[in-house]
Amino acid sequence: MNKQDWRQSATGAVVPILIVVLWQASAMLGWVNPQVLPSPVAVVSKWIEYLLPLTAYDPAASSWLGWAFSGELLGDTLSSLYRVVVGFAVGAGLALPLGLMMGASQRMYAWLNPLMQVLRPIPPIAYIPLAILWFGLGNAPAVFLIALGAFFPVLVNTIAGVRQVDGIYIRAARNLGVNQRTMFIRVMLPAAVPYILSGVRIGIGTAFIVVIVSEMIAVNNGLGFRILEAREYFWSDKIIAGMISIGLLGLIIDVGMNKLNNHLLRWHRGLEN
Amino acid sequence: MKVNDMNPTHIQVSGVHKVFKTDSREVVALKEINLDIPQGQFVCLLGPSGCGKSTLLNAVAGFSLPSSGTITADGKLVTGPGPERGMVFQEYALFPWMTVEKNIAFGLEIKGMDQSAITAKVDELLAMLSLSDFRHRFPKDLSGGMRQRVAIARVLALDSPIMLMDEPFGALDALTRRNLQDELLRIWAELKKTIIFVTHSIEEAIYLADRIVVMTYRPGTVKRDMIVDLPRLRDPAAAEFNALKRELGQLVMEEQQRHHNDEMRMAAVD
Question: Cα–Cα distance between A272 and B141 in angstroms, integer?
Fold first, then answer.
């Protein structure tokens, strides 16, 4: 980091630090009930407790790595991440081929688009009762809801991506003698990638919202479940610690997506390095 | 019309008409075009915008077939685009997600050429067009002139006997343009391609062409079909060059005036 970057980071840190100081002061001076708003120090110590393993290390019971990951927080994070990944893979895995077909074929579009337009405005959360009725409790309804949340953004962007492919590429490819199949795989699909990726980003964002909600309802682990459980015990420090964890996981996913985006679109005009 | 007697006809345009229909009216873009282009001839289609020169080129390329009349290339009727009639577009039309070498190799992969032959061919073309240092770059990182070199290399890779060029240097600055014109002449002399080159620059046409076909504004017809027999490499400052420039300038200006009048009339109607 150069001097400019340091100054920028320092400027950005001022307001959060002030808020934390004010928050801590109000807790220490007894302005607020700690049951309602615990002090930041209490939240951080709870967060560390939540992160660390519950029992002491016992070589007989488990491997060191297994022990290190036995803390509640890491277990919850992995459960939530697993649901996001599986749900997203199912949703995007269905939306991508369907979107490619609907984008490329006027007939497919005419057949399916009205149905998609009717289903799309229904928020995935509204499917919760139906999801539980169909799939009971457990991972299945959660994955179903997350897949729904990821499906529509990827579908809509894939259709738009294929439809907006610049005619000049098609002409150039026809001039080079490509057949329909090659045109689709090597010209239309890569040309649509910028649109598809922005759909993927929106889809992941939706999946992340839906995973928290569905964990509050259908399962008994995961970050969403944990903060709801903490409310039942009035553990407000753990609620906030859980929220911070959710934020951190979201940030990691977003940074990862950004890196993937930059790599896949390194050819794209919009991204000058 | 003078035709080089040495070489057989390579591209034949006979009685071509092209009509574009919109909801409200019909535009006759091409009317009764007849051209015999012998093997290896460098032909420039010259005229103001709206004279149908790009329409004619697209018809030869097979992108947009004539409403009536026929076009044959190598004796075969043109029914659609194909690699034996490689096209260089004004807007380059490189595939932005492919590197320079992938762009050049793409047509060869389509043909099903094996990988070692592709590599050899790509190396040769990169060297021919001074692109070797740019082989791993993406098009977005190249200047306009470099992009057009890649587009030319991509067409040359096809080994097509015919090269169609639609105002390929129109978007380039004057120096880059002259530079690429010279490269093109060198490649043309070496590879003996038949070239149809669309331009609205009179000087460019005289500098490049064996033969200049001046077209009229709507309907597009052949206004003048002339052989340019100035010795190469041509000097744009030479007296003969300028005499020809004056003569062609007069012809093009008449059509430009008709174009202008037409636009004024249309504006008045709207």
Answer: 9
